[in-house]
Amino acid sequence: MTDASRPLPASDSAALGALATALGVSGLLWLAATFQAWIHSSPAPKFSGGRVISVLLHPDQPAAAWGHSGGSTPEFWCLAVGLGLSAGGAAYAIHRGCRARTQRVAWHHRTGMATRSDIARAAGAGRLKGRIQTLRPTTAAASVHDVAHAVGLSSGITCFVTVEDSTVVLGPPRSGKGLHLVIPAILDAPGAVVTTSTRPDNITATLRARQSAGPVAVFDPQGLAPGIPSTARWSPIRGCEDPHVAMIRAKALTKGAASGTTDANFWQSSAEQAVRALLHAAALGECDAADLYRWSLSAVHAREAVMILSTSPKAAPAWHQGLDSIISADPRQRDSVWAMVSIAFAALADPRVLEAVSPAEGEQLDPANVLANNGTVYLLGTSTGAAATSGLVGAFLEDVLEVARCKAAGSPGSRLDPPLSMILDEAANYPLPSLASLMSDGGGSGIATTVVLQSLAQARAVWGEHAASAIWDAAIVKLILGGGSNARDLDDLSKLIGTRPKDVTSRSTGHDGRHSTSTSTSEVPILTPAELRTLPFGSAVLLMRSARPIALIMSPWTKRNDAKSLTAARKDLEQRIRDASLVRP
Predict the structure, then answer these.
(1) What is the reported pTM?
(2) In angstroms, what CA-CA distances link 180 with 27, 125, 154?
(3) Is 539 part of a structural domain of the chain?
(4) Predicted confidence (pLDDT) per residue in 167-205, tens digit
């Protein structure tokens, strides 16, 4: 270590501190005398050390010490105290600002974080130019914004996420996920959008803007956004003449029905078997959601479904036998299975929900039309409460995905163009069974999936340890916001981000009084769990493929060029919701 880099001895530091204090007090007293002289139209006093000492020795005679006759002693000291407090406050504010800026710069440019060249290669616009034709095979003269949307800035470079990148956003409530990421992603999507939420925030901020891009439908069976018409009517029976569709639909409706029970796999499989048979029978028998609900209330009523399956030439082979075996089973076993069937359709007890899933002739929402016309579908629902509709919303999502996959298979490059953006805000409320596979292969089909979670612990609780890990591992883009409080998650994320070398200097004193210094290098986390928890609001760590971690500064949608019109539209829709809430019974 060089002499220049050695810290000052304690005695020298104390001397410098005393000198700085003396100069500060002297300047403060002179400024107070100058202000007092100006107030009383007297000449400004000249500064001298002797006058400062005289004021300190004779505090009751400051005017005499400074050589002017205007003003009283209390006035002088009030001015001195006021100036001192003002100077101290300003110094503290400057110190805090510099410290905060230093901390931001420190973690942004810390060893191990992505450099400017790393950022440009991993997330910059330049890397996309050679991919435009692949990502939008049928679009002539497509631009970067047709194949990607910006998520923020890092080292002055705009970072983009492409339409084939599956994304996971981690951030606790009120961490700015919607403000910085979800709403901008909805607004900037180049094609159709299907987005979920448990609150109407995203709808109010984006609905009017999305209406200019294509048709908009709102599926809100619980009436969470009164005043915004629920224009989408969709039946869970739609397409279930096809046994494959019925199986997919049943898996979504019964997701988690047997969680926490002994032999959960057996009970889950039995519930799926019963629900898919009921859906298939309802479709073949031209029944409606009210019939489904009636069948779900009692296994005895479900014998109607057995009759339909046993007599219809289009019924899947042996499905009637499978349903009949459940209905005719030991009463305890039958009742246990039917309890799960009842849960799958429990939301239909609410007349509003039943109406939303009972479309009249010509009212049925067709996902193919949404995809073809760059439409937007907003899905609102909760996973708790008597009228929880998360199962229906999940089944709706699976329906859209199945149609999208089929359309992509017959498109040039086996890819949707324009792509479909699946923006799943509060995704844990709608635990799609196929989410892990969608994250891994959806991008290649032109289905860009964004999963927004509060934490990895939340994902594990909903999907299970292995499925949650598969979803996380399949995400090409990972965005980590501050505020997390799960110690295990923070530690895992810190390890994922990696380590950096750090020189550690130690000093020792020998028996002979001589000082020695040694330096060693150790590996420390690039970002500790505590630093991840305290990331500033509006900041995030961006992980992309094998690139180094990127320190991201996000921009809220309220700072967009079109923010004024978006804000006005949001206020209008929010007022409609408030007005409708007042008159709703």
Answers:
(1) 0.80
(2) 47, 19, 15
(3) yes
(4) 999 999 999 999 999 999 999 999 999 999 999 999 999
Reduce the DSSP state of residue 439 to 3 states and report it: helix
Tens of pLDDT, residues 287-298: 999 999 999 999
> Interior CA angle at 255 toward 265 and 471, to 5°?
95
Q: Are 181 and 169 in contact (CB under 8 A)?
A: yes
- Report the C-alpha gap between 392 and 429 in whole angstroms: 11
Both 429 and 554 in a single domain?
yes
Q: What is the dihedral of CA 437, 441, 443, 446, to 10 degrees?
A: -100
pLDDT higher than threshold 70 for residue 585: no
Let me know: does 261 contact 313? Beta carbons within 8 Å.
Answer: no
- Is residue 155 assigned to a domain? no
Strands 477-481 and 167-170: parallel
Place of tokens 């002539």: 140
CA dist., res. 396 & res. 387, Å (int):
16
**How many structural domains comprise the chain?**
3
For residues 420 and 557, membership in a common domain is answered with yes
Amino acid at 420: L
Residues 503 and 519 sit within 8 Å (Cβ to Cβ): yes
Place of tokens 């692949």: 134
Binned at pLDDT 50, 70 and 90, residue 13 comes out as low
128, part of any domain: no
Full residue range of the structural domain in which residue 253 is found? 243-349
**N- to C-terminal Cα distance for the chain?**
77
> Which structure tokens are listed for 530?
């505590």
Rounded to 5°, angle at Cα 206 from 201 and 209: 160
Which distant-in-sequence residues (6+ apart) come within 8 Å of 318 by Cβ?
Answer: none
Backbone angles phi, psi at 539, to 5 degrees: -110, 160
Number of Cβ within a 10 Å radius of residue 217:
19
Tokens of 380: 């609102």
pLDDT given for residue 431 in this prediction? 86
How far from chain centre, in Å, is Cα 46? 61
What is residue 1's predicted lDDT score, i.e. its pLDDT?
41
pLDDT of residue 69: 60
**Beta carbons of 177 and 452 less than 8 angstroms apart:** yes
Residue 51 has a CB neighbour count (10 Å cut-off) of: 20
CA–CA separation, 493 and 117 (whole Å): 24
Is the pLDDT score of 543 beyond 50? yes
Rg (CA), the chain: 33
Q: Are residues 194 and 255 in the same domain?
A: no
Q: Kindly state whether residues 537 and 563 are assigned to the same domain.
A: yes
CA gap 387, 383 in Å, rounded:
9
Q: Is the model's pLDDT at 493 over the cut of 90? A: yes
- In the block, tokens 């400017």 appear at 116
Exposed/middle/buried for 522, CB within 10 Å: 0-12, 13-18, 19+? Answer: exposed
Given pLDDT bands bounded at 50, 70 and 90, which one contains residue 84?
confident
Strand partners, 424: 196, 451
* Distance in angstroms (rounded) separating the CA atoms of residues 373 and 192: 7
